[in-house]
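In this supplementary section we document a worked example of the pipeline. Step one takes a protein sequence of length 389 as its only input; no multiple sequence alignment statistics are reported here. Step two produces a three-dimensional model, which step three serialises into structure tokens for compact storage. The input and output of this example are shown verbatim.
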Amino acid sequence: MRINIIHMGFLYSGGGERVVLEQTHRLRERGHEVRLFSPIIRWQRSFPERLKEAHPERIVPPFPFPLPFREAAAMLASSVLPFRSKEIADCDVLLCHSQPSMWIGYQTNMKFGTPYVGYLHQLTTFIHKRPEVAGNWASKGDFLVLDGLLGVFGRRVARQLDRLCHFHANHLIFNSKWTRSLFEKEYGVSGDVCYPAGPTFMPRHDVSSSRSNMIITASRHYPWKRIDLAFQVLKQLDSPVPLLVVAGEFTLHTVTLRQIAKNMGLTDKVNFTGFISDEELFNLYSRSLAYVQTSIYEPFGLGPLEAQSCGTPAVVWGDAGVKETVLDGETGFHAKPYDIGDFAAKLQLILKDEARWRKMSKEARIWAGSFTWDKHIDILEGILNEERR
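The serialised model returned by step three reads:
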């Protein structure tokens, strides 16, 4: 098959970007001709080595001069102007990840008849806000611009256009049952669930060896990820309090997180790694006693799955997509949303009971191993082949 994949933007090393890059690589391995398009490509910010291998192509030409909010401008331009439309349409089927990719897929279908399949990670965030406890999603200037434009032109119109391109897709695929349930409720559309998978390699550190008094969280430093809640959990743990490793590239929000940690007297107990390689990340997983995920309404969350593959039990909120990647009481715990005390108590059970930890660690590796990229690509390839023209 000739498959063109469109992704909203390679701005950071996130779970969605990892999924797109894995799909591109593995579909090519199976002999398909795959081109990858995106309006935004930050070569050094989003899995640099994998991005270089995937070789995505820009939909919108790079601006020849510095431009404020150029990422928001690129996303908007790719949505309303026919950049490379004939090249994008020249395939058997389009695979679209998130907005504006779904809108581009819809336009391409209307103009050229190219079938398009959506792989959906979450509801379009700047239309469907997370609950108040999640904090502000639009911490980045470019996202604030998009949020402001919606305030001018109206979310009702944006919602109808968003529904339109999802409703007319040839097929929809969801990263979790929870994500599918949101689209069923909001737009009356449904489809297949195709889970992402864990890491494709194991760390150098022996996952069965003794661990440091350390816990880890790995996610983008954005307000709605609520990394600060992990600090509150840390304050409630018994002595000796473990070191909390916060992995992830620094953002403007990192300054705020550092100040919160300082105000709570946790400067020496919180380590911000900044950007690290996959190998470094998985070695940190394999040296930690537990993984913690305190983000709100996490649609899937690769972090807990990656950590479990290294034998590291995970504690997550008992809501959203992470419930599907952590087996409560077996490979980790589901804490009562959003009860800091319950989260800390569940984490304490893992940290203080070595026999429980060893059992959970073993079960975590087995459970994570059931999520494979081969299964993922089998489902994806079958759907794309079914919908091709």
